[in-house]
Specification:
CATH topology of the largest domain: Rossmann fold
Protein name: 3-hydroxyisobutyrate dehydrogenase
Pfam family, one: NAD_binding_11
Number of helices: 14
Helix content: 40-55%
Order of helices and strands: EHEHEHEHEHEEHEHHEHHHHHH
Keywords: NAD, Oxidoreductase
CATH superfamily of the largest domain: NAD(P)-binding Rossmann-like Domain
Oligomer: single chain
InterPro entries: 6-PGluconate_DH-like_C_sf, 6PGD_dom2, 6PGDH_NADP-bd, HIBADH-like_NADP-bd, HIBADH-related, HIBADH-related_NP60_sf, NAD(P)-bd_dom_sf
CATH architecture of the largest domain: 3-Layer(aba) Sandwich
GO molecular function, one term: NADP binding
Length: 285
Amino acid sequence: MNIGWIGLGTMGKPMVKRLLEQNHHVTVFNRTIEKSAEVVDLGASAVQTPLEVVSKSDCIFIMVSDDEAVHEIFSGADGLLTGELSGKVFINMSTVSPGINRSLAEIVNEKGATLIDAPVSGSVMQAEQGQLVILGGGDEKVFDELTPLFDILGKMSIYVGLSGSGNELKLIINSLLAIITQGFAEALLATESKGIELDKFLTLINNSALSNIFLKAKGDMLTSGNYNAAFALKHLAKDLNLAKQENILRDMGNLALQNFQSAAVHYGDQDVIAIKKSLDDNNAS
C-alpha cells in the first residue's frame, strides 16, 4: 500500500517516522518544505502539492492544525479534490470540527473515495512511542481495514460511530484535559502560596490515586522549567472553542475556555501547562 501524509508538525513527523521504521513507503507534503528534510533522509518522498500526494498514494493521512488548514489542503489550488480520487482513502487525524469532516466525507464519497475522521488522544511522547489512542468516525469497515496501520501509530484504535463522531469524542476528551490542566495549575499555585515545596506536592500526586501519565509529564516539565510545547496552549484554546460550538462545554468547561483564551495571548506557543503562568499573572494583577 502506498501511503501519503500531509502535515509534519510536532505530531505528524514522529508518526511518519514510525511508518518508515516498518518499511512503508510514505509520500509527504508540508507547507513548510524544510520540515520534510528529516523524514526524507529516513526514506520518505517529498512532493510540492497535496495533488501530488493523492496521485502517488492509496491512503492519505492528514494531520494539520485546524479547519482552515484542512479546507486549504482539500479545496485549495492543487488540493486533494483536484485529483482523481476513485478508490482513495483519506484519514483525517487532525483535531477539527466534526462538521468539516462530515462535509468532506460527502464530497469525496461522490468522487468514489472515503474519508475517515481519526483524531488521536496523546501527545508527542505517545506519538514517538506508538502509544496513541485513535478515535474513528465514518465507514466502520474501512476503519477496521486500516487497523494494521493504526497499530503502528497507536496502542488502541476505537471505532466511535458515524462521520464526525471521532472528532466529537476528541473534543470532549480535550475539554476534560483543559479542566484537569487548569485544576492542576491552581493546585500548584496554592502549594507555592503556602510555602510548600513543589517537589513534595508532586511526589504526593505521583504516589496517590490521582497519579497519571499526564500529570507526571507536566510536573516534570515544571520542575525543569521546560515549557516547550508537547501540546501548544493555543491549540487547546482552539479545541475549546470548537467544543463550545458543538455544545459540549458546561460550567467548568466554559471557565476553562475563558482562561485558556486569555492565556493564549501571551503563552499560546508554549505548552498547555503554561496556563499556570497566566493564572499567576491574573492573581498578581
